[in-house]
Design brief:
6-stranded parallel β-sheet; globular; 253 residues; binds 6-phosphogluconic acid; alpha/beta
Length: 253
């Protein structure tokens, strides 16, 4: 897969990347509400997305998003309680959700304190209740926006290299083991991630440059680089990166 088939948006540094990402999220939120009366977003864990959430909680972005018509989901969660320091829910709640007027019913938490299998089934039931049972429909569109980070090993959400979710074709949510602590995760799968209307993958820092080049310029092998799953999805996928992360990319015209 070559990068000319992916949208690559390069910002000069982390600060301008976060502002560019916040601008894009706010724009998509406004367009989604205008077109469909709601904005559904799946949040990511990780330190790069966290900086974006902090920006979205403040002006000028916070008042551009209609939080009463925003439905918040997660792309993955750790199998930990909601108040655990490594909970993706807690990170997003501390950075963003506790600062905005979003109705509690619009926050679709993955219940990390359940067993991973039960948490996955409960979350899938929630997704089916929200989107309808379109698991077999070719015309199905899922989230208005999926936010993803990319791990140093090329993972997205909690789809790690060489793990079963890379090949999942039926279920929308599955448990998975992580090579990083906490070990047990719950993650969205390719069938629902690929159906997102828009996907933003946030990548920052020189330490991810070589992996980013493998993902965007190298041969496609999603078992080795799950981030390449985003290259074959149906929606608009934009890689939003800082210049430091692009240092190993092939020249682009
Ligand atoms: C998680 C995230 C994970 C994260 C990447 C990138 O639960 O940790 O969903 O997929 O987005 O590991 O994280 P950084 O942006 O902190 O490198």
């Amino acid at each position: 897969m070559r990068a000319e088939r992916t949208n690559l948006d390069v910002s000069s540094d982390l600060g301008s990347l976060m502002r560019a990402a916040a601008e894009r999220v706010a724009g998509l939120a406004q367009a989604s509400v205008a077109a469909r009366g709601r904005f559904s977003i799946a949040l990511s864990g990780g330190s790069t997305p966290r900086a974006l959430y902090v920006l979205l909680a403040g002006e000028p972005f916070v008042s551009r998003i209609d939080w009463k018509k925003t439905e918040v989901f997660w792309g993955d969660e750790r199998a930990v309680p909601r108040d655990a320091t490594d909970s993706n829910y807690r990170m997003a709640n501390d950075a963003l959700l506790s600062h905005v007027a979003i109705p509690e019913k619009n926050v679709h938490r993955i219940v990390g304190e359940e067993t991973p299998e039960r948490a996955a089934r409960l979350y899938e039931d929630d997704l089916v209740a929200f989107f309808g049972d379109a698991r077999k429909s070719d015309a199905f569109i899922s989230f208005d926006l999926v936010l993803l980070g990319m791990g140093p090993d090329g993972h997205i959400a909690s789809i790690f290299p060489g793990t079963p979710p890379v090949d999942e074709v039926q279920r929308w949510v599955v448990p998975n083991e992580s090579p990083f602590l906490p070990k047990m995760r719950i993650t969205l799968t390719p069938p629902i991630l690929a159906r997102a209307r828009n996907t933003i993958v946030l990548v920052a820092g020189a330490e991810k440059a070589s992996r980013l080049a493998e993902v965007l310029d190298g041969p496609v092998d999603a078992h080795r680089l799950p981030a390449q799953l985003t290259l074959s999805g149906g929606g608009n996928v934009t890689w939003m990166v800082d210049r430091a992360a692009t240092s190993a990319l092939a020249p682009r015209d």
